[in-house]
Amino acid sequence: MSKFEYKLIKNDANARLGKIITAHGEIDTPVFMPVGTAATVKALRVDDIKKSNSQIILANTYHLMLRPGENIINQLGGVRKFMNWDGPLLTDSGGFQVMSLGNLRTINEEGVTFKSQLDGSKFFLTPEKSIQIQHLLGSTITMCFDECIQLPASFENTKNSMELSMRWADRSLSAYKEREGYAIFGIIQGGTYKELRELSATHLRNLNFPGYAIGGLAVGEGQEKMFETIEYTEPFMDTDKPRYLMGVGKPEDIIGAVKRGIDMFDCVLPTRSGRNGQAFTSRGEINIKNARHTKDPRALDEACDCNTCKNYSRAYLHHLFKANEILGLMLLSDHNINFYQNMMMGIRISIKNGNFENFSETFLLKRAGGDILES
Amino acid sequence: MSKFEYKLIKNDANARLGKIITAHGEIDTPVFMPVGTAATVKALRVDDIKKSNSQIILANTYHLMLRPGENIINQLGGVRKFMNWDGPLLTDSGGFQVMSLGNLRTINEEGVTFKSQLDGSKFFLTPEKSIQIQHLLGSTITMCFDECIQLPASFENTKNSMELSMRWADRSLSAYKEREGYAIFGIIQGGTYKELRELSATHLRNLNFPGYAIGGLAVGEGQEKMFETIEYTEPFMDTDKPRYLMGVGKPEDIIGAVKRGIDMFDCVLPTRSGRNGQAFTSRGEINIKNARHTKDPRALDEACDCNTCKNYSRAYLHHLFKANEILGLMLLSDHNINFYQNMMMGIRISIKNGNFENFSETFLLKRAGGDILES
């Protein structure tokens, strides 16, 4: 079994090419992690995910503890065996969902009491409990339990929340059971306050986590604020540890964050958009339900070599969405994950070749140019 | 290009092992054709269909003429290219849907006027029009346009309807454009009246169609009546032409019809049931939503080697259905199609080995025995 380790292979300005070694396989960074909330990346088969060159996926502790429950999953060999995914798995801690799903909840020093969105039953989640659940789920990378506050928030509220999250980080780390090739990541909080981000990052660095996440972003603060926050947080993160920007994002967000030294990303956007008929392409987003695609024999993205683009016309995909056919969701989700993973591949190759800046400019310019209308 | 041809390889009592040669590939019979109503076999990717050893699929003229329309499909290279299916394709004529979808319709000698289920617009479908649409769809096997009446029906009504269908068969055949390796099948009508079935079959045989279907069954008459009808119709069908029992059926129906000399089947059951959580297994049907599967680590069917059964537990599939995850529909549909195709393979091998009777007895007995409850 290999030790959990991040190897920095090359810097290109602040962009980083690296590799994460885990008990369940290696991960080339910068990496995008498809989201498999309920132990399935929605509408995708595991071999589709593999074919897209996805190397690690994310699952949600909150959803899985409510249904089917961590004990059932544990008895069946953990999330990876349960869903037939043999690569590395990252689980979030549940903190974000307790916030975002807006359940009636009360927070105290000990933890969070909330009601299940499924049946109203009461749950009490603590750092210790979250870490134990993630252990039972068999996560390769466990995330600390934190409080995620909604922005905008006052300095005082943000400070109090961050400090609570740091005390919970201490407790999370204590509760975590070390296993070779597994890891627990700390989550830097502090909203959009430089001073607080520095305090949080420094606190976690002193605890010597094997990896760090920037949490509490991508919650409505806007791209500019997000990039700014990354910029002043990044210097306080170790260079020999992976850095994970949680819940991000659009292709443009990812490019900008890689430029600022981020290694890991996750987002529901490619799969959720795919189910809604939105396709990511090298020339920007298109809505396949739009009538202009009715007779269009072209691929979604002529620069893409995924199964969907190689084999199906926009006209066919348009038809599937109009007819509410499940295959439409499957093919668009598959394409979008491939688009994201091809982008990540392009990012990694360009860092390797020392021309990430050039790659990203070309990429962004082409996308900003928009779709070519059928002639 | 090969001539369209049926080769009878071997009889085992009345069961027939054969091969159909078409412009788009060979078909081993007895064959089950998955239904791809709107140019997609619901929730299945084309390579899933291929992997299940499906050799021909069916699409519905009625649905495709309404949406996206036969001209759009024709411009995009026909249904096969449109949906990326390179094997043979059979299309029904639309007659059955005009009946079953219960649209306001009026029938006269010329054809059927009906309202679109999608937008209420009026359509007039005639034998000539149906054959032309199927031509534009690029069907390997075109079906005659017929009137399908609901059972029970009086002798007089059934006779009038059958005679109309026979006049429409003449017109369908005249309208059909021959192409090497393509074919048009006549449809025998006559309800459950022996005399009428004989008249209809004889009429079509005199027209020398390359294949025959038995239509107007599996509409509520029950298995006994259906088998009886096949038995007295079969002697009037050529032995050197394929025989297709339309819209059938459950595994037990197929076994019984093969025994009575039928070569081809189609049915929505495996895919529709799959989407509803019902799985076909060698020990009968199971409903995966049932709570007894919550923690069950076993495969749906331990006798099955499909992707779903090799890689997923009943507990996982149960979870996917409880969580309304699309992957659940995908995996169950895939399994069910594999179950059907494995059954067809078993049928063909047993006819080849001259022990079809023994195979079918064992198969039926095991299914009647029911699922083994978890110990």
What do we call the CATH homologous superfamily of the largest domain in chain A? Queuine tRNA-ribosyltransferase-like
General form of chain A: globular
Low-confidence stretches of chain A: none
- The counted number of beta strands of chain A is 16
**CATH hierarchy: architecture of the largest domain in chain A:** Alpha-Beta Barrel
Strand content of chain A: 15-25%
Question: Number of helical runs of chain A?
Answer: 15
Oligomer: homodimer
CATH topology heading of the largest domain in chain A = TIM Barrel
Count of discrete structural domains of chain A: 2
Distance between the termini of chain A: 56 Å
> Mean pLDDT of chain A, rounded to whole units?
96
Strand order of the largest sheet of chain A: 4-14-13-12-11-10-6-5
Helix/strand class of chain A: alpha/beta
Q: What percent of residues of chain A adopt helix (DSSP H or I)?
A: 40-55%
Radius of gyration of chain A in whole Å, from Cα? 20 Å
CATH domain class of the largest domain in chain A: Alpha Beta
Sketch the major β-sheet of chain A: 8 strands, parallel
Q: Biggest protein-protein interface? A: A-B, 36 and 37 residues
Can you characterise this structure?
- Chain A is α/β, with parallel strands linked by helices and about 375 residues long.
- Chain A folds into two domains: about 5-265, TIM Barrel (Alpha-Beta Barrel), CATH 3.20.20; about 280-370, no CATH class.
- The first copy, chain A, contains 15 helices and 16 strands.
- In chain A, the strands form four sheets. An eight-stranded parallel sheet of chain A has the order 4-14-13-12-11-10-6-5.
- In chain A, helix 7 links the parallel strand 10 (about 140-145) and strand 11.
- In chain A, helix 7 (about 155-175) runs parallel beside helix 8 and helix 13 (about 315-320) crosses helix 14 (about 325-350).
- Chain A starts with a strand and ends in a 6-residue tail after the last helix.
- The interface of A and B includes residues 82, 312 and 329 of A.
